[in-house]
Amino acid sequence: MLPTTRSLAPHAAQIFKRAQCGLFAGKTKQYGNNVPHSKKKTRRTWLPNVQSKRLYSETLESMIKTKVTTRALKTIDKHGGLDGYLLNARIDSLGLEGLRLREKVLNAKEKEISTEKAGLSV
Description:
This protein is α+β, with helices and mostly antiparallel strands. About 40% of the residues lie in helices and about 25% in strands.
């Protein structure tokens, strides 16, 4: 039996809440200082480069609209597509949205395998 998203939720705990809504590949908010010529430091933040993209899932045979960082896009290309990324990436870098998509892909793959076995036995 596959674990549900709720049982995997402790692995997806991230400080950066917005990262739960998309595929951020472990990228989070970074903190630092603005330092002008006068050397008077003021705090600031840097946000990850987030893009809205439609990615094709071969297993689900549909386009999935999600927010994804540019780093995650490079990793998705490296793994040969969205399905490869979701199945091979570390669970703690996926976030809740990534875990939900991973679960959908795994369920679709199981159905595909069971229908192939049923077709072979007939």
